[in-house]
Task: structure prediction
Amino acid sequence: MEDNIVEKYLKAGKAVVAAKELARKLVKPGIPFLEIGTQCEEKILEVGCELAFPINMSLNEIAAHYSPPIGDTTVIPEKGLLKIDLGAHYDGYIADSAITINIDEDPGMQIHVDAAKEALEAAIEIFAPGVRLYELGEQISKVITSYGLNPIKNLGGHELKQYNLHAGLFIPNFKDKRHDQILKPGDAFACEPFVTAGKGFVINGKNAFIYRLKKKLKKNLTYEEMGYMNKIEKETKKLPFSPRLLLKKKIIPPEKVNQIINTFVRKNILDYYPILIEYDRAHVAQEEHTIIIDKDGNTIVTTQ
Ligand code: MN
Ligand code: MN
Result:
């Protein structure tokens, strides 16, 4: 990996760290999700980066993909596990990182967070050229099961490439030998253990709050729709976004945003990401860092 690319990852990493720190400060019972989410995203933009995806604020049995929609009235509850997952990019080089906030510091919940943190540290510990992806998963599940808890087996880490959040290779959260590829210099990965006392499996929920440009249509669109589609492409490339971003960047006027999104989903221009819920509705904790390997084989966690 070239030095100037490492610099870009580090810049995105710093933006994500700043946004995570802000989230830790802001999360208090009674505060609206929308207020926290908007401020954390603003922090990333403020330091000259762009959003690689909208903030995910997933509570309790929701493992991922809840991003406050336009007009959201959800507030932080008195207790529970809140996952804050943030992504920034600079010139398309993405830092993806998550923390779990144990709102009332309940000790029974804290072990989920501790297990996720320790599992992530254990994976980072062995992260080096030559290591196989399933060996990272083995480390992760070893730590999590030592707490008497389960990793979520159908979620995991992923390779990162320029403007590509899920770039192909996958880091399982258990020893899944199908993922036998080897880490090598130049690689960038997000590693993300998920922990639960439930079965350790997520299913799709009903609602989706995150979208992504899937493919552009050349016909069957009005002139106006064509314009919106092109602007979405220019703004997001093919990275996931919240409809909130389309308002913030003045891409679609507020009175049209829902209708355009629904039309684009129906016409298969936009893909959507349903919320992911733990099978047994058990609470979930997540910790995530982005790790890169430079050309000399040194690993760097962008979020330090
Ligand atoms: Mn993430
Ligand atoms: Mn990720």
Notes: The mean pLDDT is 97. The longest strand covers residues 202-213. The chain has two domains: 3-204+276-301, 210-275.
